[in-house]
Design goal:
It contains nine helices and eight strands. It is an alpha+beta fold. It folds into two domains: 209 residues, no CATH class; 136 residues, Sortase, Chain: A (Beta Barrel), CATH 2.40.260. It starts with a helix and ends with a strand.
Length: 363
């Protein structure tokens, strides 16, 4: 495989030098970025490329065409890739929505011939569709001829995976072999970024090359990532932003981008408060103006998942309450309580009350 030789060189350099030095750098991938090593290694090997402005956009969600390009570039020599379409003179490759002449045509051709991709039941490939974690793990592992099979299933609070799910074995394999961060929460439907995709490929190649059962980075990168997932409300990996409890206008601006946060940070053993819109204002055209409109569907036992600074937290709902607007301060009382409160204006299209659910940490 093309990338294996690159991994060998990179691992050797890690042994010879106290710090890793890569030739390729990007304006938006700083020296302490969590996926620096994988992005740099794949870039130096020509597997991934940045943009014309010198950026890599590691937090940008990756689509199906981009994902296939990276996979094929990591495994096949350039001459094989470039000659993939020499014998194909049809107007399409294997799918009606993949035309000859598009930048990804040869990658799709190789992926199809090698049974890395099959397409959708309607016969399309949908190259511009974003790819989620379940799809990404499947296509990455199967492209390396890894078809994990497990006879037993163990619940993992940080993986939203059940015993009967088709993606169960892919997540189990990825977690056991450190292809994904074992300290974070993953939902199979959360979209994967360019940085995350590169990281999984680099970790897998490193593991296969070294023969080790695990692969971990030698650094401790920092991250300000903060997201919330509430499966019952179909909220998946939604950004969370800290708000000033004394500045209502700043809180409203934050809600145009996702969910707001008051009080303590996750993991501090104290109370944290999340809030969002149930209806929003007529002038608010953001996609989050009704994000908590169905908060009353949450029941005791339902879970809320947080990822904060590369660590996952799980809360289980134990009670709900409806209070008048005049009692807002009740939501933030008892700041030393180790719990989560999630609230919104209630009922929808009204600000007269607050609907609040409370959760206790289970992880």
């Amino acid at each position: 495989m093309k990338f294996v030789r690159l991994v060998t060189i990179v691992l050797a350099l890690n042994i010879l030098f106290s710090g890793t030095v890569f030739a390729k750098s990007y304006s938006d991938v700083p020296s302490n970025y969590k996926y620096l090593k994988s992005i740099s290694a794949l870039s130096d090997g020509g597997v991934v490329k940045g943009y014309a402005d010198g950026s890599f956009k590691p937090e940008k969600q990756i689509n199906r065409a981009e994902a296939i390009k990276i996979l094929i570039e990591s495994q096949y020599e350039d001459n094989v890739i470039n000659s993939a379409l020499l014998s194909n003179h049809s107007a399409t490759i294997r799918f009606p929505d993949v035309k000859v002449g598009q930048w990804y045509d040869k990658y799709v051709e190789i992926a199809y011939l090698n049974k890395i991709i099959k397409g959708y039941p309607d016969g399309t490939f949908r190259p511009s569709d974003k790819i989620n974690f379940a799809e990404a793990l499947k296509v990455i592992l199967e492209s390396y001829n890894i078809t994990p099979r497990y006879t037993s299933f163990e619940e993992n609070k940080l993986l939203y995976v059940n015993n009967g799910d088709w993606f169960k074995n892919y997540f189990t394999y990825a977690s056991k072999h450190n292809l994904i961060n074992q300290n974070k929460f993953y939902h199979p439907s959360q979209l994967i970024t360019r940085g995350e995709f590169a990281e999984i490929i680099y970790r897998l190649e490193s593991m296969l090359e070294s023969g080790l059962s695990e692969y971990t980075t030698s650094t401790n990168p920092t991250s300000n990532e903060y997201t919330v997932t509430i499966p019952k409300l179909k909220i998946i990996n939604l950004p969370v932003f800290f708000a000033d409890p004394h500045n209502e206008q700043s809180a409203l601006e934050i809600l145009k981008k996702g969910i707001g946060h008051y009080l303590a940070e996750p993991g501090g053993g104290k109370k944290l408060v999340l809030f969002g819109h149930s209806s929003g204002y007529s002038w608010d055209n953001s996609p989050y103006k009704t994000i908590l409109k169905s908060i009353d569907k949450l029941n005791n036992g339902d879970r809320i998942y947080l990822n904060y600074k590369e660590k996952g937290y799980v809360y289980e709902i134990f009670k709900s309450d409806i209070i008048p607007q005049s009692q807002d301060l009740k939501i933030v009382e008892n700041p030393n309580a180790n719990e989560l409160a999630l609230y919104t204006c209630w009922p929808p299209n009204s600000i007269s009350q607050r609907y609040v659910v409370y959760g206790k940490p289970v992880l």
